[in-house]
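User: For a benchmark we're assembling, each entry needs the component sequences followed by a predicted structure for the full assembly. Here are entry 17's components. Please fill in the structure.
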Amino acid sequence: MDPNEGVATRSISRRAFVSGGSALVLGVSWLGCAPGAKRTPNLVKSNEDPLTPRPAQPAPATRAATPARETFAPDAFVRISTDDTVTVVAKHIEMGQGPYTGLTTLVAEELDADWSQMRVVAAPADHDKYKHVHWGVQGTGGSSAIANSYYQMRNAGAAARQMLVEAAAAQWNVPPAEVRVSRGLVVHLDSGQSARFGELVAAAREHPLPENPRLKDPDEFVFIGRELPRIDSAAKSDGSAKFTTDAYRDDMLNVVIARPPKFGASVTSFDASTAEATAGVVAVREVPEGVAVYARDTWSAIQGRRALSVEWNEDDAETRSSEQLLALFRRAAETPGLDAARRGDVDATIAEAGLREDTYVAEAEYAFPYLAHASMEPLDALIEVDPESDGSGVLVSYGCQGPGRDHPAIAKALGLPLDKVRLEVLMAGGSFGRRSQHDSHFANEIAHVFAAQPGQPADRRPTKLLWTRDDDIRGGYYRPMVVHRLRGAMQFDGTLLGWDQTIAAQSFVDEAKRRDGIDRIVVEGASNLAYGTRHLRVSQKIVDVGVPTLWWRSVGHTHTGFAVEAFIDELLEGVGGDPVYGRLRLLTEKPRHHAVLTRVAELANWGRKPAEGSAFGVAVHESFGTVVAQIVEVQEAETPVRRPRVSRVYCAVDCGVAVNPNVIRAQMEGGIGFGLGAALYSEINLEPGGRVREGNFDRYRNLRIDDMPEVDVAIIASNEDPSGVGEPGVPPIAPAVADAWRKLTGERAKRLPFVRNV
Amino acid sequence: MKLNINGEIHDLDLADDIPLLWVLRDQLQLTGTKYGCGIAQCGACTVHVDGRAIRSCVTPASTLEGKEIRTIEGLEGNAAQAVQDAWVADDVPQCGYCQSGQIMSAIALLEANASPSEDEIHDAMRGNLCRCNSYARIRQAVKNAAAARTEGA
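Assistant: Structure for entry 17:
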């Protein structure tokens, strides 16, 4: 069937054509902002289509840069309009972690704007303008959005401020040094003159962009460190926030793909006759990823896919079960691998320690399952002939976490030069790493389903691609399966004599990109062991498995944080040491660890007796430049299933300058829930033969509200440059719970999750 | 068939088995209601039918003739106002994708039970997944909304 047929008969209400309202530009009007005060945000909604570039947005490289006359656009990041609004162009994707608010805060700070005039839009793919300062390519990840933008965005605000000041000074014929800016007003006190930003737009454009504008000292901060509300809360509380899935076009095709039932399988043949006869189905095409069903609406596409019959070639498929794989990983971890860290002589030290009576020697193994990200919005994208092109360009819009990789991948897959492809980054319904892909597999898939349409490229219909939840849970790109094996020796006085750790894991980093053969994200959090010891070996064993894997919120720290913290607990218990004081003794060279652990112990009033039926547990871990310590209060729940019930979590975090304490707390709370849900319930299992057992939220279980603890967060005051907060809340929670569970029940968690899905 | 959605009658030509979710989204572009799982396990698609919270992803539209369907776009009443105000005041949303469903469940709860206990909040809300794990703020916002209504009454 021709995909150009069949849509004219579609029954659609008037509303579909008139309700194009969107909220791509988000803003909040908020006056008299006392912390905790009731707020009435006033969202500014555009009447334009959510995907249509706005005058306030930067012109993509493919079009002539002609900023609207009424806008002052000093650089790639700041747009000031005659209506006094200041729009920040966010180079990092908003997927819940808060950069829309954080980046806007940094600009507003140096601009001395009023918070009510601040707006934010997403930057499109534009690799020169919007590259990550540390990586050199455009993208978001590693909890680095604020860390890499801290000076860049403040500079942007300060430069715009200086140009406004110079424009005002010239107009008023006064020295620029006498002009001040406060809450969006430019003033000269002696002459009594003042101007709003909007009034200076035309004049400010005539002034040169200063290269090194003066930045504030931390004690001058007005917004940084303050409890500013999220800029996107209102749109996310009334249904108006637009995600990729909410984009609609006239004549749009909806696509789902029948995917191989096992990793590595491919299409042998398929019979599309029943699928093509399904109401609403427009076409069925083979693509490299499987068999794509094109339909006039999502439900028809899903029904069409159900009606397909596909023969799969499983010659190259991964057919081992996860139990078989686990056995392989366990064997691999039995002997040391390639050294990621080594000092002293750990073998001799532990052998000798075993003969001594004042020393405890322990050995342990910890096993971790595959985990899916399962963001609430599964992967999805819209691709269409670029309406701003002559028909030869393509516009792709989706929650793209890595434009620097995906944009060229799409262009290459379509056989187009890069300047013929525009990529708009949309707000994403979660990611946790899933939307950042080393192999751009989803970007390629978007291009493939577009290219597989028949007809001339210029006639292709707008195409929305969706991974259903089944696709998402069964589709791989999991947090890898990992096994840690540890040996250690601790003197009864708490001295850590030696530490030997072998990590058997999959790697998705090309061998050529590993430094001295080490995949840094397999060993991170272990090879840089915080606890002081003279004899250390941390080694890596890479196991090759045909299950695609990916980073998952806090990456290697998801397992290294657990293994290190659980094992230090085993050693401390063996020598009768206190979990907090025993750690502090080993952290004398790590002042930030020492400080957060001390702070969380104060917060939890460590040393008090737990309530009857409760126990406390503790863990501390550094990831992404941020140190987090958590103390948990845990009971044993019996129903509906026996498990640790965590009633309260105390959390201390040192992330440098706390740009927005409100967002930092939210990320700690969310990270704790994310890590706790995985530790309690989550695992992906391959059945014998290689099929994934879990296919939806019924069997791939996550935390629900009744398991969510109360969380108290203390943020360490700091003037150091900010580090990340999106991921570092995750690693400590599982080992802290394991510590408490051990005290409560005598059982040690050796294999996650606590509640096995069998 | 005719469906009453947000007080407006829509005359629609529908497949027998199409779930309400896809009618709301693909036909009417009421996009506040989200797809999350398709099997009533995540609650992202929660809407009200005659005031009760239901999962629109598994509810055939054909069963809803003559009933009042309400989505996040058509909210009215002081429970809705209190809940949405509490959500914004507490900055509950992170990614925000699940929050329409969370809010619809919370409103239905407060319409039926003005002062729910913590257990009652959990019972009403445990069908709504949030992968950002904003649950502590959701729980607090429901309590705050209930308190605001009680004080206002």
